[in-house]
Amino acid sequence: MVLLVLLLLLLTYTAANNTAGAGKFIGISILGSSGSETVAISDAVNLATNNLAAAASFTVGASVETLTVAGAVTAKADAISLTANAITLGADLTANTSGAISFTGATTLTSAVVIAAAGTISFSSTLNGTSAGAQNLTLTAGISGDITLTGAVGVTNRLGAVTITSAATVLTSGTFKANSFTQSAGSVETTFTGLLDLTGAFGFTGTALNINGAGPNAVGTTMTVTNSGLFTTANTADLTVTSGFTQNGAGLNSLGGNITTSSTGISFAKGVTLTNDTTLTGTTITTGSTLGGSGFSLKIAGAAAIDGAVTSVTTLEVTGKTTLGASATAITTTDNQTYAALVLGADTTLDAGSGNISLPALVSGSSSLTTITVGAGVTTIAGANTNTTTNVTTGVVLISNSSASITNFAVSGGTLNGTGSIGTLTGSGTGIIAPGITGTPGKITTTGFSLGSGNALAIDITNATPNAGITYDQIVVATGGSVTLGDAVLSLSTAFAGTAGAFFVIIDNQNASGGLTGTFNGLTEGSIITANGRLYQISYTGIASTGAMTGGNDVILLLK
Question: Which end of the chain is more exposed for a tag (fewer CB within 10 A), N or C?
Fold first, then answer.
């Protein structure tokens, strides 16, 4: 079969150019006649010369079956348009001034290629290398030119290093597989619609970045996002970044997918908003600004460093140590908050709404902690804590530390329950101190005990042989501490059915003498309390070891 390739060198003359007596080519077009021709460009084609018109272009028509470009092609102003069923590219393409470059057939790179345009660069079909990871690609579209990759990239053979030096909008519509991706400038946004699969690093500097591929997106080493606009991961667009994720731009972040790193960290310099339930996994997860949930939950699988307010999250769970910065003064959720160790960087409020707050390990830092729950919500504190003060203002706080804590507790509202050893215990406002939990007595040991007139001390006595902290509630004040009752209310609940003469040391004042001032509201020395049909006499001068009602400084109830 005879192949016919028509090379049209179109000439035009203009009055302005005719003074030199030379014609101007307006472009080169290569048109195949039968749809099965093979066109090879083996040497450089340069249309950016003074012998060409200002809008000189280079076009390969749609009837060409196979196009091989082994020599560099340079157009002066307008487009380079390569249309063939199969395009093999092994040389650079340059469209000067405002030109665009387009590929409408399946394209294969045979070597490192640089494609530069001052307009749009588009690939309408697939783009691959000839061997996996061996062919690098550099694209430059300027601040107003778009880059569009409609077909899958690197699925047959992944590309090497893909570099975008400048663009307005970058859009990849299919799977994107390469060794690495680097973008140095982007004036609008870059979007990966399909799955991202890199064996090496991902680096982005530009305005907005969207990772939208639903499923596992992979970056083989580090991922750095320097965004001036919004960084987004779509719902279920999960990212696995082997050697660490860093967002260090001035823009905000929107997360709908999980981010996982292996033995490294994840850091966000600016605010994060969740658009889906999200898990961040790494050695340390760092947020340098606000974190908002919009009704979604966050799990941090690893340590956390949070330096901004947390708001509108449903649940927050941190499996490692949480370090709060000076700006992290309020952590607000609508449901449970669960921590391991917690380090305070400022006076901090944890508000879990109707959920629970779990603090099973050390709480430290030279600051106060206020926990807030409502309804059935309970804060559980079990560490040998060293923070300055824990404030109980509303809800229930349950202490259960087996090792002594030096943290002071200030109860101005809500209820303090539990068993454990703490610093000073100070009541004010309407706070209630109730050792143990409902139905299970307990013992709170403190270095100082002080109540006000609006407070209540709730004591439960069960129907068993008296045993402080086991069968009835008790407050123990360590040697050197003081007891101030301040006309507070004594609330007594008893099921004891034993015989008269049984005694209950409800405040064990371990000072040898003195150290106790005031009485309970309406209960002077020797007063009788009626509870569950039984009569109890109160003494503020009892002796814990014998049950004697005089000669000591312990508060005792004697069954009459």
Answer: N
> CB-based contacts of 545: which residues, under 8 Å, 6+ apart?
none
311 has pLDDT over 70: yes
Non-local (6+) Cβ contacts of 502 within 8 A are: 466, 496, 558, 559
Predicted TM-score (pTM) of this structure: 0.90
Give the CB-side neighbour count of residue 363, counting CA atoms within 13 A. Answer: 32
Distance from the first to the final alpha carbon of the chain: 122
Supply 132's token pair.
């996996």
pLDDT score, position 380? 98
Cα 44 from Cα 35, distance rounded (Å): 25
Assess contact for 526 and 539: CB atoms under 8 A: yes
Are 88 and 64 spatial neighbours (Cβ–Cβ below 8 Å)?
no
24-32 and 5-12 strand pairing: antiparallel
Query: Of the candidates 524, 506, 510, which has an alpha carbon nearest to the alpha carbon of residue 482?
Result: 510
- SS3 at position 391: strand
Mean pLDDT (the chain) is: 90
Helix (H, G, I), strand (E, B) or coil at 1: coil
d(CA 527, CA 302): 56
Residue 53 has pLDDT above 60, yes or no: no
**Spatial contact of 120 and 93, defined as CB atoms under 8 Å apart:** no
Q: 394-420 in b/e burial notation, b at 16+ Cβ within 10 A?
A: bbbbbbebeeebebbbbbbbbbbbbbb
Backbone phi, psi, residue 13, to 5°: -125, 145
pLDDT of residue 61: 56
Per-residue pLDDT tens over the stretch 57-75: 666 655 566 777 776 777 6
Residues 18 and 4: their CA atoms lie apart, in Å, by 34
Q: How far apart are CA 397 and CA 404, in angstroms?
A: 17
Q: What is the DSSP pairing of strand 298-306 with strand 316-318? A: parallel
Q: Which of 42-46, 78-82, 88-92 has the lowest mean pLDDT?
A: 42-46
The residues facing 166 across adjacent strands are 140
Rounded to 5°, angle at Cα 513 from 507 and 515 = 60
Q: In which band, very low, low, confident or very high, does the pLDDT at 80 lie, cut at 50, 70 and 90?
A: confident
CB 308 within 8 A of CB 271: yes
Residues in the chain: 560
pLDDT band at 15 (very low <50, low <70, confident <90, very high): very low
CB 342 within 8 A of CB 363: yes
Q: For residue 18, give the 3-state DSSP assignment.
A: helix
pLDDT at 46 over 80: no
Cα–chain center distance at 88 = 44
pLDDT tens readout for residues 164-223: 999 999 999 999 999 999 999 999 999 999 999 999 999 999 999 999 999 999 999 999
Burial level of 9, CB count in 10 A (0-12/13-18/19+)? Answer: exposed
